[in-house]
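Box 4.2: Ligand-aware structure prediction
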Amino acid sequence: RYSDGATYFDMGEHTLRVPMSLHAENRARLVARLKEMIGEGKLNAGSAVLLQGGSDVQRDATDCTWVFRQESFFHWVFGVLEPDWFGVIKVDSGKTTLFCPKLPQDFAVVMGRIIPPEDFKTRYQVESVCYVDDMPEVLGKMKPTTLLTLKGVNSDSGLTTREAHFDGIDKFSVNNSILHTEMSELRVTKSAAEIEVMRYAAMVSSEAHCAVMKHIRPGMYEYQLESVFQHHSYYQGGCRHQAYTNICGGGVSGAVLHYGHAGAPNDCIIRDGDMCLFDMGAEYYCYASDVTCSFPANGKFSADQKMIYNAVLAANRAVFDSAKPGVKWDDMHELSYRVMLKKLKEGGLLTGDVEEMIKADIGGVFQPHGLGHLIGMDAHDPGGYLPSCPPRPTKDGFNKLRMARVLKHNMVLTIEPGCYFIDVLLDRALADPKKSKFIVKEELERFRGFGGVRIEDDVVIREEGNDLLNKVPRTVEEIETLMAEGRQEIVSFPHAEGKHSSQR
Amino acid sequence: RYSDGATYFDMGEHTLRVPMSLHAENRARLVARLKEMIGEGKLNAGSAVLLQGGSDVQRDATDCTWVFRQESFFHWVFGVLEPDWFGVIKVDSGKTTLFCPKLPQDFAVVMGRIIPPEDFKTRYQVESVCYVDDMPEVLGKMKPTTLLTLKGVNSDSGLTTREAHFDGIDKFSVNNSILHTEMSELRVTKSAAEIEVMRYAAMVSSEAHCAVMKHIRPGMYEYQLESVFQHHSYYQGGCRHQAYTNICGGGVSGAVLHYGHAGAPNDCIIRDGDMCLFDMGAEYYCYASDVTCSFPANGKFSADQKMIYNAVLAANRAVFDSAKPGVKWDDMHELSYRVMLKKLKEGGLLTGDVEEMIKADIGGVFQPHGLGHLIGMDAHDPGGYLPSCPPRPTKDGFNKLRMARVLKHNMVLTIEPGCYFIDVLLDRALADPKKSKFIVKEELERFRGFGGVRIEDDVVIREEGNDLLNKVPRTVEEIETLMAEGRQEIVSFPHAEGKHSSQR
Ligand SMILES: [Mn+2]
Ligand SMILES: [Mn+2]
């Protein structure tokens, strides 16, 4: 809810007030950078940025739409949460013009009061708001020397952004080659206002994870805990969207990295003795959180579960303590492998020299994913592999990293080491003498079907010490205490009395 | 969860088991119809149906996807809930071949066990399953005289279905002109198996609506009730998707027909004295429900609320009692206007002859939408305006109808009369002497800001008497009783103690 008098957005007095100045500040950062480029002779004076917002997405050919979610680059500069808008920023003056769709009178019957441009101008705190229909004329008068449009490839999806387009754009000189890199780089470090929104999203997720840990009982279906999480995020925190598809793996499902998709939709029964790996994150005002909690379904860690859990926790903490501006992310990735492998060796699962293990990519056998990723408006925020950044490492165990950059002050990223027992990877490693010599086979067999552990935090890299945005129980003791508390309450679930199928 | 031994789908023992034979029956109906067309010389012997399933939909250029939901026509014939499949049915033999994507070995790490085609063959109960990669070769050997593909316009969205395509399809003779009409017409009447799935979805929605009515307290935000509904649908009913964007209007929001969209996202506070209009429907196994409940936020109808509510209820019941095979849907629409306007006249809001009111489109002033729509896999199921059907009426008050067909046995549709107080429509009517003479202005003014009432049921049209799929309290007494029961429980919500903004 935008408060048109006070220029903020919230979802009620129990939720975070986001000031519209967040976007003014983002625009100022963008304009400052583009002026720098003009100074450097890389861009014409008189240029203007032109962005096109997202449109509603239909389910196939039907009239059912996904609940609209604004395109992230557009939201970053303008803060508009509705479909079919455009926005222009003049680089010289920083003046912003938004373009809203002109809605027919009868729209009011179906969609509610039609807000006039003047009201939008106050709401979004911009210099002017016009109709999209009038954009060719307004831009014609504005006479930008160049229109900067957004075209670039997302390094996580491989998809290209939708470039702004309108009938008549061919009358302008368009440059689509610089904006994506510059905006992506600006999005990599977050402003104080952005960090507060991300902290809120992470706190909502934290509380929702705690609600799940208290609510869970063996015999429930995984998706029922997904439902508890989503309900808590929305009802308590005002988060209508989740930042990504929730991963709720019980037991062996925890070893499927992207569990929760349509082919494995969190639909297994959670059994007594299972380890759970729940990777779920709420989104507030288009800012993501991405938090993973791992815990035993029955509330008490077994000795094996504790050993694995503490190995991952040690890796998580070591990285949190070492990650700071100037440090290379791939070095942190290696550090997490080093710490975890050492602990697994102490636990009797591995044998031999840890540095040799790293060279043989034993890390990648147990954690076949990168240590973490940039996070912001998107759970996997852009900017990991921009042209100016180190390219994706090619080395085994490092090539899955979503970035290999040097850390900067106010970067926000996830630290998410994990340890998984994935049959196909274990079998491959056991069949490879260079790897199998490090593995204590007799011990390992006991862990088949264990699933996995991941401990994922959302962290702001700071000169003065990192800022942990989420707050969930992390030590074995903290988790067992919270879960014991949850066990005090009687929880009934629909099939609690029924027979449980043992099929997975 | 598909049970590969027993050939059904469910989301646990507390949810409905859907037999895979549902799709075999749909395929048999399709093949029978196409054979008929071969007999009539309208289609070549040796033809085959080729359908392409849905693909994952990304949020803009990011790697975040909407939770996959299968394209409805594809699901109707095959029952496959995963992306990127194709399917072929030979018309002469009815033999079905499914084509699944060939996934790389490492997919198992990220997405889980790779299911081999033989297992899919058992799961989906089809004659064979091959890889999509092999489709050109397999089809080449099959030598269909014609490939029938799906191309047609959805009359609710105006969008065209995505026609099946693969590299090499140009080597086949393709006919895209008949399948959409034939499949749409088949989808209009539901099989017994389909009706049971729809009954289940409607029952989940019914129970979720009851949970909302019990939970609601003035001072809550509308979206908090949306969250309660979604949680109940998913946690209790196994419904991961909703059938459409939920409409949760308190007070004046109830007069916005598609309230709940991004520009009006169920974000107002519900006040004591407000009428609520909650239009929410869970989806199970890609079958929709679409149920609207209207009730007073505080659990007790005022005299005015009761009068409006009972006018709408009378219209709903009159249609339920009169709608049967052979009846024209636009006549039912007129009947609902007749009954409602008569009641509004008795309530003192209108004056004059009811038949004259209908001619002057007073109906459209208070209910500016159609009486209801086909429902099935889509909330607005296709088939309303096929070439063989009566075209969209042009008359004011009737032109919003989503169909104007003659009812048939086993059609499933919504009956959803409503009465809304929409300023723009009231002002227009008062300014028009042909309309204003029927309106008792002094009485009407009291209802400004009232919002609206809609009573929406999901109904199977049957020769032997209609089958009501949902089960929610409908009379004033039933609603007040249920809500009083809910009031026995203490409900705390995050801002219950805070000051409430009066702003809407
Ligand atoms: Mn993550
Ligand atoms: Mn409806």
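In the box above, the bound molecule is manganese (II) ion. Chain A touches chain B through 84 residues (CB under 8 Å).
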